[in-house]
Amino acid sequence: MQIGILGGGQLAMMMAESAGKKYDIEFIVVDPTNNPPASKYARCIKAEYTDSKALKLLAEECDIATIDFENVSSSALKHLEKYIPVFPNSKSVEICQDRLSEKTLFVENNIPTTKFCPIDCENDLKNAIKEFGPDSILKSRRLGYDGKNQIIINNKTSKNIWNDIGCVPSILEEKVDFLTEVSLIGVKLQSGETYFYPLVENFHRDGILSYSIAPYENLELQKQAETIHKQITKLINYVGVLVIEFFINKDSQLLANEMAPRVHNSGHWTIQGTNISQFEAHIRAISGMSIENIQTNGHAAMINLISKMPKKDELNLDANTYFYDYGKNEREKRKLGHITIIDSNAQKLYERLNSLKKIIT
Fold first, then answer.
1. What is the pLDDT of residues 228-284, one digit of tens each?
2. Which of 151, 204, 142, 162 is nearest to 333 (CA)?
3. Which of 5, 202, 223, 226 has the fewest CB atoms lying closer than 10 Å?
4. pTM here?
5. Which of 254, 256, 235 lies closest to 244, judged by CA?
6. Which domains does the chain have, with CATH numbers?
7. 199 CA to centre of own chain
């Protein structure tokens, strides 16, 4: 089997690494950069995602196609869908590309989410701020991953907010006083069955995921999140890994924040922390294979390595700590690698996590 991937970053790299040799799958990646991370395990075509020749090659040589990030051109996906199955489908990706579409999906299907208002001009923004009060968050409808294109609005915020966001269609969200943020990683097979990983608790710094801890043990919230996930995947005819991020408010209620139609940063721990990683699970799902079950191997934590790579020999890594270098050039706020810690004892895991955080940050 041959699988095409639009995007050649670390997510594509880990998909190809997890399933290439194991299932005799050849991966062909389209990416506009030189030597992207996925080039370690996949054949790479250097081209823009809308390049007609590259898309033609994928359609001719691949059995199916997928993505490693959601901001790939939906027109490219629609073009590929004329010739081969694409998972997730272009409709799903389009919804996840647009915060307003996401929020509308939640509201129309009675999925709890934060209060929001669409913003198309400066006057819309002024009226919405009056309604929401001084504490709110302005987010561009598109290209808002890793804290990009977001402005926290309070009494100290610049008066040129509309210009600061780039005068682009946005949404204003009511700021939520939440306890924590969690994500649910689920994988839906072509047969319709869905399997879930435990909720993951996520901690951010400057809008970028800093570290994750799994599992977040709350059986009731796990069930609620799984119900919402199944509801959404049925609505949009989804196949593959879909991740939903939630806030947990002070009343211990889930509020859907956003979705990712792909494997996710908060699931990197699944490589060592479960019997089948999110990367392998996604490939199995879109390839029409089955999954028997998903089991965890104790407690897990994942730390992102951002902006600057630490020296591996200074980290004092033990047998239960795993180091990943994506092979990227250092750049401010860029994800360069990650570290995963696995332990059967939660307290020991937290101690090791805190020790590594001090070295890295």
1. 999 999 999 999 999 999 999 999 999 999 999 999 999 999 999 999 999 999 999
2. 204
3. 223
4. 0.94
5. 256
6. 2-86 (3.40.50.20), 115-174 (3.30.1490.20), 178-360 (3.30.470.20)
7. 14
